[in-house]
Design a protein that fits this description.
Blueprint lengths: L5 E3 L2 E2 L5 E10 L8 E2 L8 E2 L12 E10 L3 H16 L7 E5 L5 E9 L5 E3 L4 E10 L3 E3 L7 E4 L4 E2 L4 E5 L10 E7 L8 E5 L10 E6 L2 E2 L22 E9 L2 E5 L3 E2 L1
Antiparallel strand pairs: 1-2, 1-7, 3-6, 4-5, 6-10, 7-8, 8-10, 8-11, 9-10, 11-21, 12-13, 12-15, 14-20, 15-19, 16-20, 17-18, 17-19
Protein backbone atom coordinates (compact mmCIF):
# COMPACT_ATOMS: atom_id res chain seq x y z
CA UNK A 1 0.00 0.00 0.00
CA UNK A 2 1.34 3.41 -0.97
CA UNK A 3 2.26 5.74 1.88
CA UNK A 4 2.17 8.83 -0.34
CA UNK A 5 -0.64 11.34 -0.03
CA UNK A 6 -1.74 14.79 -1.17
CA UNK A 7 -2.87 17.71 0.97
CA UNK A 8 -5.45 20.12 -0.43
CA UNK A 9 -7.61 22.67 1.36
CA UNK A 10 -6.19 21.68 4.73
CA UNK A 11 -7.20 18.02 4.33
CA UNK A 12 -5.10 14.99 3.41
CA UNK A 13 -6.21 12.34 0.94
CA UNK A 14 -5.61 9.74 3.66
CA UNK A 15 -8.38 11.42 5.70
CA UNK A 16 -10.76 10.04 3.05
CA UNK A 17 -9.19 6.56 2.78
CA UNK A 18 -7.72 7.39 -0.62
CA UNK A 19 -4.54 5.56 -1.64
CA UNK A 20 -2.36 6.92 -4.45
CA UNK A 21 -1.82 4.19 -7.02
CA UNK A 22 1.66 3.06 -8.02
CA UNK A 23 3.07 5.60 -10.52
CA UNK A 24 -0.25 7.41 -10.09
CA UNK A 25 1.11 10.98 -10.03
CA UNK A 26 1.82 12.79 -13.29
CA UNK A 27 3.16 16.35 -13.08
CA UNK A 28 3.45 18.13 -16.40
CA UNK A 29 6.00 20.78 -17.27
CA UNK A 30 4.20 24.09 -17.89
CA UNK A 31 4.14 25.16 -21.52
CA UNK A 32 5.68 28.49 -22.49
CA UNK A 33 3.38 31.19 -23.81
CA UNK A 34 4.60 31.79 -27.36
CA UNK A 35 3.67 35.20 -28.78
CA UNK A 36 4.66 35.32 -32.42
CA UNK A 37 3.55 37.65 -35.21
CA UNK A 38 4.32 38.17 -38.88
CA UNK A 39 3.52 40.88 -41.43
CA UNK A 40 2.42 40.75 -45.06
CA UNK A 41 5.41 40.21 -47.40
CA UNK A 42 7.66 39.47 -44.39
CA UNK A 43 10.00 36.50 -44.24
CA UNK A 44 9.85 34.74 -40.88
CA UNK A 45 8.20 36.24 -37.81
CA UNK A 46 8.75 38.42 -34.75
CA UNK A 47 8.94 36.70 -31.36
CA UNK A 48 7.40 38.87 -28.63
CA UNK A 49 7.49 36.15 -25.96
CA UNK A 50 9.97 38.05 -23.77
CA UNK A 51 8.64 41.57 -24.27
CA UNK A 52 7.93 41.84 -20.51
CA UNK A 53 11.52 40.84 -19.68
CA UNK A 54 11.06 37.10 -19.13
CA UNK A 55 9.08 34.23 -20.53
CA UNK A 56 5.63 33.46 -19.17
CA UNK A 57 3.99 30.07 -18.83
CA UNK A 58 0.58 28.47 -19.04
CA UNK A 59 -1.01 26.65 -16.13
CA UNK A 60 0.51 23.42 -14.84
CA UNK A 61 -1.57 20.23 -15.07
CA UNK A 62 -1.29 17.49 -12.45
CA UNK A 63 -3.09 14.14 -12.69
CA UNK A 64 -3.41 11.86 -9.66
CA UNK A 65 -4.93 8.37 -9.65
CA UNK A 66 -6.36 7.02 -6.39
CA UNK A 67 -7.86 3.77 -5.15
CA UNK A 68 -10.72 3.76 -2.64
CA UNK A 69 -11.97 0.74 -0.70
CA UNK A 70 -14.47 -0.02 2.05
CA UNK A 71 -15.88 -2.97 3.99
CA UNK A 72 -19.17 -2.95 2.06
CA UNK A 73 -21.05 -1.17 -0.72
CA UNK A 74 -22.86 1.23 1.61
CA UNK A 75 -19.60 2.45 3.21
CA UNK A 76 -17.98 2.80 -0.22
CA UNK A 77 -20.70 5.19 -1.41
CA UNK A 78 -20.50 7.16 1.82
CA UNK A 79 -16.74 7.56 1.41
CA UNK A 80 -17.24 8.55 -2.22
CA UNK A 81 -19.63 11.35 -1.15
CA UNK A 82 -17.06 12.64 1.35
CA UNK A 83 -14.39 12.76 -1.37
CA UNK A 84 -16.72 14.61 -3.76
CA UNK A 85 -17.51 17.26 -1.12
CA UNK A 86 -13.83 17.68 -0.33
CA UNK A 87 -12.65 18.11 -3.90
CA UNK A 88 -15.62 20.12 -5.16
CA UNK A 89 -15.04 22.83 -2.57
CA UNK A 90 -17.64 22.19 0.14
CA UNK A 91 -14.77 21.32 2.50
CA UNK A 92 -11.60 22.65 0.89
CA UNK A 93 -12.62 25.88 -0.80
CA UNK A 94 -12.48 26.43 -4.55
CA UNK A 95 -8.77 27.23 -4.78
CA UNK A 96 -5.71 26.74 -2.64
CA UNK A 97 -2.40 25.03 -2.01
CA UNK A 98 -1.69 21.53 -3.25
CA UNK A 99 1.01 19.51 -1.49
CA UNK A 100 2.29 16.12 -2.57
CA UNK A 101 4.12 14.19 0.15
CA UNK A 102 7.17 13.22 -1.91
CA UNK A 103 7.81 16.87 -2.88
CA UNK A 104 9.17 17.73 0.54
CA UNK A 105 10.54 21.20 -0.27
CA UNK A 106 7.92 22.58 -2.66
CA UNK A 107 4.17 22.95 -3.07
CA UNK A 108 1.74 24.20 -5.74
CA UNK A 109 -0.43 27.30 -5.37
CA UNK A 110 -3.63 28.41 -7.10
CA UNK A 111 -4.73 24.77 -7.31
CA UNK A 112 -8.21 23.86 -8.51
CA UNK A 113 -9.56 20.30 -8.66
CA UNK A 114 -11.17 19.46 -12.00
CA UNK A 115 -13.35 16.35 -11.89
CA UNK A 116 -16.93 15.12 -11.71
CA UNK A 117 -18.65 12.08 -10.22
CA UNK A 118 -18.04 10.11 -13.42
CA UNK A 119 -14.33 10.18 -12.51
CA UNK A 120 -15.13 7.35 -10.09
CA UNK A 121 -14.80 3.92 -11.68
CA UNK A 122 -16.23 1.18 -9.49
CA UNK A 123 -14.08 -1.93 -9.86
CA UNK A 124 -16.15 -4.02 -7.45
CA UNK A 125 -18.83 -3.56 -4.80
CA UNK A 126 -16.15 -2.52 -2.29
CA UNK A 127 -13.48 -0.81 -4.43
CA UNK A 128 -13.25 2.10 -6.82
CA UNK A 129 -10.65 4.05 -8.78
CA UNK A 130 -10.62 7.85 -8.98
CA UNK A 131 -8.67 10.14 -11.31
CA UNK A 132 -8.38 13.80 -10.28
CA UNK A 133 -6.89 16.57 -12.43
CA UNK A 134 -5.51 19.71 -10.79
CA UNK A 135 -4.75 22.96 -12.56
CA UNK A 136 -2.21 25.13 -10.74
CA UNK A 137 0.03 28.18 -11.04
CA UNK A 138 2.95 27.16 -13.30
CA UNK A 139 5.75 27.62 -10.74
CA UNK A 140 6.38 25.46 -7.68
CA UNK A 141 6.78 27.48 -4.50
CA UNK A 142 9.43 26.60 -1.93
CA UNK A 143 8.99 25.47 1.67
CA UNK A 144 12.66 24.91 2.54
CA UNK A 145 14.89 28.00 2.49
CA UNK A 146 18.11 26.30 3.62
CA UNK A 147 19.77 26.60 0.19
CA UNK A 148 18.12 29.79 -1.08
CA UNK A 149 18.92 32.90 0.95
CA UNK A 150 17.21 36.24 1.31
CA UNK A 151 19.71 38.16 3.34
CA UNK A 152 19.22 41.21 5.56
CA UNK A 153 22.76 40.77 6.79
CA UNK A 154 24.94 42.45 9.36
CA UNK A 155 27.86 41.18 11.44
CA UNK A 156 26.18 41.74 14.81
CA UNK A 157 23.02 39.77 14.08
CA UNK A 158 23.59 37.36 11.21
CA UNK A 159 20.08 36.79 9.87
CA UNK A 160 20.95 34.72 6.81
CA UNK A 161 18.09 33.01 4.99
CA UNK A 162 15.30 34.93 6.70
CA UNK A 163 11.97 34.47 4.96
CA UNK A 164 10.10 37.33 6.66
CA UNK A 165 11.86 40.71 6.65
CA UNK A 166 10.30 43.95 7.90
CA UNK A 167 10.67 47.66 7.15
CA UNK A 168 9.30 50.16 9.68
CA UNK A 169 8.91 53.66 8.26
CA UNK A 170 10.20 56.73 10.11
CA UNK A 171 8.38 60.03 10.43
CA UNK A 172 9.62 62.49 7.82
CA UNK A 173 11.50 65.52 9.17
CA UNK A 174 13.83 68.01 7.59
CA UNK A 175 17.10 66.18 8.28
CA UNK A 176 16.07 62.60 9.10
CA UNK A 177 16.94 59.98 6.46
CA UNK A 178 14.22 57.49 5.50
CA UNK A 179 14.12 54.02 7.00
CA UNK A 180 15.97 51.62 4.72
CA UNK A 181 16.05 47.87 4.25
CA UNK A 182 18.58 46.06 2.06
CA UNK A 183 17.49 42.66 0.81
CA UNK A 184 19.83 40.36 -1.06
CA UNK A 185 17.97 37.87 -3.25
CA UNK A 186 19.80 34.72 -4.30
CA UNK A 187 16.98 33.85 -6.70
CA UNK A 188 17.95 33.75 -10.38
CA UNK A 189 14.79 35.54 -11.52
CA UNK A 190 12.68 38.47 -10.26
CA UNK A 191 10.31 37.55 -7.43
CA UNK A 192 7.25 39.30 -6.05
CA UNK A 193 7.00 38.77 -2.28
CA UNK A 194 3.77 38.50 -0.36
CA UNK A 195 3.30 41.50 1.92
CA UNK A 196 1.59 42.33 5.18
CA UNK A 197 1.20 45.74 6.81
CA UNK A 198 0.89 46.62 10.49
CA UNK A 199 -0.42 50.09 11.16
CA UNK A 200 1.27 52.43 13.60
CA UNK A 201 -0.57 53.77 16.65
CA UNK A 202 0.80 57.23 15.74
CA UNK A 203 -0.97 57.11 12.37
CA UNK A 204 -4.18 58.79 13.47
CA UNK A 205 -5.21 59.75 9.91
CA UNK A 206 -4.51 56.37 8.28
CA UNK A 207 -1.73 57.79 6.11
CA UNK A 208 0.62 54.82 5.91
CA UNK A 209 3.82 55.46 4.00
CA UNK A 210 4.19 59.04 2.74
CA UNK A 211 7.27 58.06 0.72
CA UNK A 212 8.09 54.55 -0.46
CA UNK A 213 10.86 53.59 -2.91
CA UNK A 214 12.56 50.47 -4.25
CA UNK A 215 16.09 50.88 -5.65
CA UNK A 216 15.62 54.68 -5.76
CA UNK A 217 12.42 54.35 -7.80
CA UNK A 218 9.42 55.74 -5.94
CA UNK A 219 6.43 53.43 -5.56
CA UNK A 220 3.13 55.24 -5.84
CA UNK A 221 0.91 52.42 -4.55
CA UNK A 222 -0.41 52.76 -1.01
CA UNK A 223 0.66 50.10 1.48
CA UNK A 224 -1.80 51.15 4.18
CA UNK A 225 -4.13 48.34 5.28
CA UNK A 226 -6.62 48.12 8.13
CA UNK A 227 -5.66 44.50 8.78
CA UNK A 228 -2.50 42.42 8.51
CA UNK A 229 -3.96 40.21 5.78
CA UNK A 230 -1.41 39.35 3.09
CA UNK A 231 -1.45 41.18 -0.26
CA UNK A 232 0.69 41.87 -3.36
CA UNK A 233 2.00 45.05 -4.95
CA UNK A 234 2.76 44.91 -8.67
CA UNK A 235 5.34 47.67 -8.24
CA UNK A 236 7.34 45.78 -5.60
CA UNK A 237 9.36 43.15 -7.46
CA UNK A 238 12.75 42.13 -6.08
CA UNK A 239 15.53 41.62 -8.60
CA UNK A 240 18.40 39.14 -8.27
CA UNK A 241 21.10 40.65 -6.04
CA UNK A 242 20.80 43.66 -3.72
CA UNK A 243 17.49 45.50 -3.39
CA UNK A 244 17.06 48.63 -1.28
CA UNK A 245 13.70 49.68 0.15
CA UNK A 246 13.22 53.12 1.72
CA UNK A 247 10.22 54.64 3.49
CA UNK A 248 9.02 57.70 5.36
CA UNK A 249 5.70 57.63 7.19
CA UNK A 250 4.01 55.25 9.59
CA UNK A 251 3.63 51.52 10.04
CA UNK A 252 5.60 48.37 9.30
CA UNK A 253 5.70 46.45 6.02
CA UNK A 254 6.72 42.78 6.18
CA UNK A 255 8.02 40.96 3.11
CA UNK A 256 7.30 37.23 3.02
CA UNK A 257 9.90 35.78 0.68
CA UNK A 258 9.99 32.49 -1.14
CA UNK A 259 11.66 30.77 -4.09
CA UNK A 260 9.81 29.75 -7.26
CA UNK A 261 11.02 26.99 -9.57
CA UNK A 262 9.72 25.24 -12.67
Amino acid sequence: MSSEYIEFGGKKSTDFYLVIQKDGVQISQPEENRIEATLPFMNGFYDFSKMAGERTYKQRDITIKFSLSAKDENELYRRKCDVVRWLSGAISGAKGELRISFLTDYHFVGATAVFDTSAFEFTSRRTADLTVNFKTYPFLRSDDYSDIGFDDFNFETDYLNLTDISLTAVKQTRYAPPATLKVYSYADRPIRPRLSYKRSKDDAKSVGFTYFALNDKEISASVYRNTEKEFDLDELTLQPGVNTLAAYGFGTLTLKLYEEAL
